[in-house]
Amino acid sequence: MSDDQDNRSLSLLYQHHRSELLAFLTRRVRCRETARDLLQDAFVRLMHSERGEVGNLRAFLYRIANNLSIDHARRNQVRGVNDEQALEHLLNETSPERSAVAGNTLDHLERLIDGLPSPTREVFLLARVEQLSYKDIGARLGLDPRAVERHLNKALSHCAAAALHNRNKTDQP
Hints:
Blueprint: H1 3-29, H2 32-48, H3 57-79, H4 83-92, H5 96-114, H6 118-128, H7 134-141, H8 145-171
């Protein structure tokens, strides 16, 4: 198969299976942005793999994506609690008491984010405010996507810890 045919074949595979594979990965990692990054990684790995002996490219692609999601889960397991989910849960809780202190909490989180080291703060803002992918953030800041992920995890850990601390303060009599 020529390079042009191979590229067209991969392009068609991407067009036909992108949505279903993204949904699969989103269910696995519970974060659409992470799923997009893993989807891109899966196609890059497929592109660089020896596909000559692969009978079913779709199945092979799913195997790659599944392995990437397992690797991602293992990295999160090492980290412990999924800080992003914990932070979202805490920030989405509503009660009259929580509503009364919401402004203070947001001010506190803003100060906390402003106090993060420069690359960590920039990564957090680009990921959560501008909703850029790890790859795009890495390109903008000159960082490897894995370094972007580490900075984002660090920022989320700090925010989650501050939210828990603030929550514990408001729960005390």
